[in-house]
Amino acid sequence: MTPSVLLLIAAGLGFIAWIAARAKASAFRSSSRGALHSLPSYHGWYAALWAAIPALVFALIWSNVVPNLALQSALADPAAQALPMMDMERNAILSEAMTIARNPDQPAFNATAQALAMPIRAAFDRLGLIGVLATVVIGFAGGGLAFLRLKPDFTARTRVERVVLVVLLLASLAAILTTIGIIASLLYETFRFFQIVSPLDFLFGTTWTPDPIAAPGPDTGKTYGAIPLFWGTLFIGAIIAMIVAIPLGLMCAIYLTQYASATVRRWMKPLLEILAGIPTVVYGYFAALTVAPFIRDFAAAIGIANPSTESALAAGLVMG
Exposed/middle/buried for 286, CB within 10 Å: 0-12, 13-18, 19+? Predict the structure, then answer.
């Protein structure tokens, strides 16, 4: 049973809970003399969250636990007695057995792996069925508990908005923690780098030919000079790209503000804003695969010797 099936079951249980709770809240509206505290849709979302979230959490945990449980079950099978004692060979055979268990059409290179694949597959089927039943029970239990708590004066809207607030807070914290992790990783690697390469050699060196395979030595800093990188960035971004961008940008701006009709302006302005929002690295990928080979072939056609796809002209044109 794949994890996606458990996730679909959890989502389906949440949808069922949403329909049932919304119907119950609508009945409150028609039978109750007073006004409902929250709209029926909020009652539905409250029950859906109680049904789906516990089931989703269980599905995610179970999906990560199942491979280990299936492996332990296979190791208890008599076929596991043929496994070698060396950890490297043993792990390779078990990994092959897991692959064959998930893909029966996969050819087997080891007889022991083929023999272990059947008990692993049987364990997967058994554990998958257990996971489905447990997901359904947890979803129905959570949705049923929420369904029983629904009343005309129940503060469903407040509770749902609190859950949404917590989700948004976790999402923002994830972005912040990711940024902190990136900065910490960069600082750590920078510290390690400058333990090997002198900052003076890096900042004022004129040769950039790093060799990650070579062992660090006294001459390592001479191959990590950053001036070619600085000059390449300046040459591509501030010279070639500006030669392209300034006249084109001015002409586009003048046309859109002075000559273009309202219809053209309504279409072109969002398109230009979308182009401006695409990361430069995406343009660089396009330049490397499309524009650079075209410029190389054009240079060869007009007689330039030894043209290369590593072209500053291609990068500058596309960036501009």
Answer: middle
On the 0-12 / 13-18 / 19+ scale of CB atoms within 10 A, 53 is: middle
Q: Are 21 and 46 within 8 A, CB to CB? A: yes
Task: Indicate the SS3 state at residue 208.
Answer: strand
Q: For 24-70, what is each residue's pLDDT tens digit?
A: 888 877 765 557 788 888 889 999 999 999 999 998 898 888 888 88
pLDDT digits (tens, 9 = 90+) for 143-152: 999 988 888 8
Is 145:50 a contact under the CB 8 Å cutoff? yes
- The Cα 26–Cα 32 span in angstroms is 10
Residue whose token pair is 């900042």 = 203
Q: Which pLDDT score, from 0 to 100, does residue 288 have?
A: 87
CA dihedral 17, 18, 21, 27 (to 10 degrees): -140
Average pLDDT over residues 115-143: 86
Residue 52 CA to residue 16 CA, distance in Å, equals 10
CA distance 179 to 187: 12
Contact 53, 164 (CB under 8 A): no
Q: Is the pLDDT of residue 187 over 90?
A: yes
Q: How far apart are CA 115 and CA 101, in angstroms?
A: 10
Calpha distance 196→174 (Å, rounded): 33
